[in-house]
Amino acid sequence: MARVSPFLHLAGRYWLTFLAISWLWTAIAAAANPIEDQGLGLPLACTLGQTCWVANYVDVDISVEVKDFRCRKRTYDTHDGVDFAIRDLGVMEQRVPVVASAPGVVKNVRDGMQDVAISDEASRARIKGRECGNGVLIDHEGNWQTQHCHLRQGSIKVKAGDRVETGSALGLVGLSGKTEFPHVHLTVRKKGKAIDPFTGQEVSAGCGKEGNPLWRADLSVPYEEVALYNAGFSAGKPDMAAIRNGKRDDGPLAATAPALVLLVDIFGVEAGDKLWFLITDPDGKPIFEHVEQIEKTQARRFVFAGKKLTIPSWPTGTYTGRATLTRKMDGQEMKSDITRTVTIR
Hints:
Blueprint: H1 6-32, H2 34-38, E1 53-56, E2 82-85, H3 89-92, E3 97-99, E4 104-110, H4 121-126, E5 134-140, E6 144-151, E7 163-164, E8 169-172, E9 183-190, E10 193-196, E11 201-202, E12 227-234, H5 240-244, E13 259-269, E14 274-280, E15 286-293, E16 298-308, E17 317-329, E18 332-344
Antiparallel strand pairs: 1-2, 2-9, 3-8, 4-5, 4-7, 5-6, 6-9, 9-10, 10-11, 12-13, 13-16, 14-15, 14-17, 17-18
């Protein structure tokens, strides 16, 4: 039987030790800056642009002016995070998970606040000092922190000291704290200072500087000038509050419906925008067209237009509605639209 040289035994042991140390240092390096090296995931389980939308970006103007990193007004004064919204309260009732955006250790949690939309100064005063609502604060390596706000009452699944990974369940999307609609507010901080995840820069850096986004490379998180996020049909004047509460009628509609109305809810309208409504019949022929001029810049705007029944009944079949918003920017026209159908029987 051949004998193995002691030198080879020793070399093999050193080689294995070298490999182990190399692996350990690689793991430590990867863990040292998980946000910078691995990137951030979304703070909720959704598909951006389909089941969730950015309602507000970070305000990077330290004056009383309001500007996001693109120098647009898709934010509000002193807003230090990004708001990821779901469609309405009906979707919230379906239990949308809030998840960790990066690996780390839970530093603090708050639960027990009611899911009640802020509507006036009295309601704002009641939650003063607790604007985040039910939330989870997570420490990450490299002096990073993430804060998830407005979670649903009683839904938080973690406690201080828990280790979480990217995608770990924290709770559910809610309506607690300073909010008017169900969403998750994500604030990212480094050494205690708020960082815009779309640029990787501090708020004080100002706008017009793209920087290096912190989002994961495999995750598409594009900037949206405007988001037409909710649309549908109604047999008459739609009830905005009911629609936003998830109480909607997606049909079918009766052939004797008094009207055929197309409605749309929008994040980020600006004064000067034009909204074009088009409804076509089952044969694809236009039966209604209307252009709405937007006169006021708003974070959220509910708009509707439609046609009254002027004949004994609507022809049965599937009707299509399209709302198209156009905006003039830097000498060019930007378009965004949403399409919905409804069946008339």
